[in-house]
Amino acid sequence: MSNSTNGSATRPVIEVDDVVHSYKGRRALDHVSFKVMPQSLHGFVGPNGAGKTTSLKIICTLLRPQFGIVKVFGHDVVDEQKLVRRKIGFMPDHFSTYRQMTVYEYLDFFAAAYGLPFAQRTQVIDEVLALTDMEKRKNDLISGLSRGMQQRTSLARVLVNDPELLLLDEPASGLDPRARIELMEILKALRSMGKTIFISSHILPELAELCDSVTIIDKGKVMYSGSMSGLQTSSNEYPTWRVTLDSEVEGIAERIMGLPGIISVDQVEGRPDYRVAYDWTVTDRNSLLRGILDLGAPITAFTEDKRHLNDAFMDLTTKGVK
Length: 322
Ligand SMILES: Nc1ncnc2c1ncn2[C@@H]1O[C@H](COP(=O)(O)OP(=O)(O)OP(=O)(O)O)[C@@H](O)[C@H]1O
Ligand SMILES: [Mg+2]
Prior knowledge:
Helix 4 (about 105-115) crosses helix 5 (about 120-130) and helix 5 packs across helix 6. The radius of gyration is 23 Å and the shape is globular. By secondary structure, the chain is an alpha/beta fold. The protein has two domains: about 5-225, Rossmann fold; about 235-320, Alpha-Beta Plaits (2-Layer Sandwich), CATH 3.30.70. Residues about 1-10 have low confidence and may be disordered. The protein has helices at about 5-10, 50-60, 80-85, 105-115, 120-130, 145-160, 175-190, 205-210, 230-235, 250-255, 285-295, 305-320; strands at about 15-25, 25-35, 40-45, 65-70, 75, 90, 165-170, 195-200, 215-220, 220-225, 240-245, 260-265, 275-280, 300-305. Strand 7, helix 7 (about 175-190) and strand 8 form a beta-alpha-beta unit. Adenosine-5'-triphosphate binds near residues 51 and 54.
């Protein structure tokens, strides 16, 4: 019924409706509702203890919601558990056992568990090893891999099943900046292959570039759910761009301040580098850049300052304090 191609084009991949969940009487999820649309990269952001892992476990059928309804591809996670499991891949926030297996053995073990015939397994494993750039490590023991490589192995394991929906619980935690960027690149590639990706993190700016939509959760309550751009404009924070000049220009901060819609101009640590916040109802980044160039400033870099996203996140996640 819900498998019709017409229906699946617009129907959300994940529908969480009014979910409540408590552990020993302590409420971890408090009437949580949100949707994730097909082929989106949706961030799930919240501080420690917000309820991210609990929500993910419910979505991936490992935990039954005590109240409310959760559907994945239109299938109820309680009544149609098997149908849901077939279409999803869950990457938990820790690499549990299997440490004395090689990467290849580990992937082969899961491929077999997913019911892939022996003849197909080698090809599928080679594909996921290539996608996660782990070919050279396939004969290494998992226990000897760095954290980043274990994360990649874990992601490769999730991909063995060729899931339509990836549920990733803090896959970037503990990774160095290079490994983070590489992981983000892999996720972008997976999205372009048509997969829907739901990824949790406790750092909003980390997901800002990657995600097109986001749900922010704090103390078991959804504080925001919608597009990434909507978050930036709905928060009290102004969009901020970082303007780097080739060299110091006398009085430039005051002159930038005189452009239309400028809220503030802050110089960064005595360098020819400025954070410029503007009112998005008055101006936009193109007009801002043009305005600064017209002032004759020798711009060497013009990049979005992600700090304001962090401020937006802090703003949203402190409102929930009871
Ligand atoms: N198995 C459990 N038993 C008791 N309480 C739990 C259990 N799992 C989670 N909780 C509690 O539920 C709340 C939400 O936890 P959850 O793990 O879902 O948060 P999280 O957003 O994933 O946090 P983190 O960023 O630390 O991973 C917390 O208060 C936590 O202490
Ligand atoms: Mg967690």
